[in-house]
Amino acid sequence: MLNSEDSSRIYQQAYLPEHLPGYVERISGARPHLHGNYLCFFRKTHLIFIGYPLGVPFDDTPGAYTSACERFDPSTVALIAPDIWLDSAAVEMQPDDSYYRLGLPLESISPEVAYMLRRAEKELEVKYGRFGMEHKKLIKKFINNHDLAFAQIQIFKHIGNYAKHSKTAMLIEARRANRLAAFTIVDMGSAKSAFHLFNFRSSKILVPGASDLLFNEMVRLAQSEGKEAINLGLGIHAGIRQFKEKWGGVAFLPYRSAYVYRKQSPGPELGKLADKL
Fold first, then answer.
1. 30 DSSP assignment
2. What sections of the chain are H helices per DSSP?
3. pTM here?
4. How far apart are CA 230 and CA 218, in angstroms?
5. pLDDT in tens, 116-142
6. CA 144 – CA 153 distance, rounded (Å)
7. Nearest CA to 199 among 118, 131, 133, 139?
8. Contact between 269 and 261 (Cβ < 8 Å)
9. pLDDT tens profile 154-187
10. Measured CA angle at 95 (ends 203, 89), to 5 deg
11. For strand 97-103 and strand 125-129, is the pairing parallel, antiparallel, or unpaired?
């Protein structure tokens, strides 16, 4: 568990979405713990270890991981870090990626982005809202229309729980004639960074530039609160990377991840225990 000193330190030093205790806890159901310079989350026999240290640029991540496993004695571990050092048949590697970052203040935007903003502004109104049935339906449709991994589906299914209970998450929505066209969730729970976590669009109300309009409002919000940057999350695929890069986002940190089966061989039931991060 986190005490007030731990929470204050995390708020001051968080630079990744996985450094946000309220986000990871609501998505995964695991309780947050600060282990030295590292955040980890534990639930039953499953450990989520965030291998990106707080407050220091370099640290003994393998040593901290070993120490955390000794402390919590997990059967399975979801591990993310700039590099995976483990080499074992009981380690299931996931695809590599990179975190993207947008430095603030944003001094200029491209003519392409400016055009999309003007186009979307003619049809859409930007508001701040609360998560409800409309948003849940957009997420459900997204899940049904995409080939997603089990872990991804579990994250999306818990967005509502996170959005409803988080004190730092902001839901920005774009509406046409009061009908929901798109929405974005950004978390402001760090002193220096904002975190662009989710964006969903309606398949029925298709307005070019809707996501740009929401992104622009997110930038305005982050700048108004004195944030130094927005963590834009992972690259995921070429289309998402292109969107982030046209706004000026750059890859700034490598992302490696693995599921580790410490006490038994991988199997369907154990796989379910390592399903959320």
1. P
2. 4-13, 21-28, 61-72, 111-121, 133-145, 150-157, 159-165, 210-224, 238-246, 268-273
3. 0.91
4. 9
5. 999 999 999 999 999 999 999 999 999
6. 10
7. 139
8. no
9. 899 999 999 999 999 999 999 999 999 999 999 9
10. 140
11. unpaired
Do 247 and 253 contact (CB within 8 A), yes or no?
no
Residue 36 backbone class (left: φ over 0; alpha: ψ -120 to 50; beta: rest): left
Note the pLDDT tens digit of each residue in 23-69: 999 999 999 999 999 999 999 999 999 999 999 888 999 999 999 99
Structure tokens at 116: 């999309």
Q: Rounded distance, CA 204 to CA 2, Å?
A: 43
CA angle 19, 141, 216 (to 5 degrees): 55
Digit-coded pLDDT (tens) for 227-239: 999 999 999 999 9
Q: What pLDDT is attached to residue 82?
A: 96
d(CA 53, CA 95): 21
Rounded Cα distance between 56 and 240, Å, is: 30
Nearest to 142 by CA among 217, 73, 201, 221: 201
- The residue written with tokens 């695809």 in the block is 95
Closest of 56, 58, 60, 54 to residue 18, by C-alpha: 54
Neighbouring C-alpha atoms within 13 Å toward the C-beta of 92:
15
- Pairing relationship of beta strands 229-234 and 193-201 according to DSSP bridges: parallel
Cβ-in-10-Å burial (0-12, 13-18, 19+) of 195 comes to buried
Is residue 181 classed as helix, strand or coil in its secondary structure? strand
